[in-house]
Amino acid sequence: MNLETKIEIKPNESLKVSKPSTQSVERSVWKTKVKTKNRKEKLRKSGLQIKKEAQDIEGEMLEKEKFWETPAFLRRKKI
Asked: CA 64 to CA 62: how far, in whole Å?
């Protein structure tokens, strides 16, 4: 009985990574997806995209605040 067994370990094959051609990708649409441990996708965005999203969120909040605005007869008048 031979207790030793031979295991063949193959060397790692080189990874081939193709780079996207800059001619086919428009800069305004260019997004990089990165997977993290939580399996959430992160997107790279330009400053204009971030500003537009912030304005949209702020607009939605203002609309919700208008709903809760106090009626005129409950407002206190300053004399």
From this structure: 5
Q: Element (H or E) spanning 28, and its range?
A: none
CB 8 within 8 Å of CB 14: no
39 — phi, psi (to 5°)? 60, 30
| pTM: predicted TM-score of the whole model, two decimal places | 0.37
Place of tokens 């993290």: 36
C-alpha distance from residue 29 to each of 16, 33, 48, 51, 52 (Å): 25, 12, 12, 16, 15
First to last CA, the chain: 104
Token pair for 5: 């067994």
Instruction: Tell me the pLDDT tens digit for each residue of 66-78.
Output: 888 878 788 777 6
Pairing of strands 41-43, 33-35: antiparallel
